[in-house]
Amino acid sequence: MTHPSSEARTDDDATLADLKAAMEAFVAERNWEAYHQPKNLAGSIAIEAAELMELFQWDPVQQPPKIIGDEAKMQRIREELSDVLAYTLAMANRLDIDLSSAFTAKMVMNREKYPVGSEDFKKG
């Protein structure tokens, strides 16, 4: 029997609740709850984001088609981006944050801060 979190899922059929549950089960199976304190999780998100940035460290600015055409690089990007997501899900679980409502609220704020036609995005 396959573990529910190991079944192939796509963005079209997995919910955030599914992903959060898979992460919660992964952490619980390993008894990692004691290590998943907010400071540790925030640091882990930053570390994994830095590992994602490292993949582009010395590359010239490349357009997405060139990056997408490099399967080895894309695999590394998927892995590091997934690590960022995993720790984000773990932190949301630990602090009981509803990511969908938090994201929706933040997008409302972003729309107000950066209205259509605004040049403010270049400053931030």
Automatic annotation (TrEMBL):
One biological process term in Gene Ontology: nucleoside triphosphate catabolic process
Keywords for this protein: Hydrolase
Keyword Hydrolase in record: yes
Highest taxon of source: Bacteria
GO molecular function: nucleoside triphosphate diphosphatase activity
Identification of the protein by name: NTP pyrophosphatase (Non-canonical NTP hydrolase)
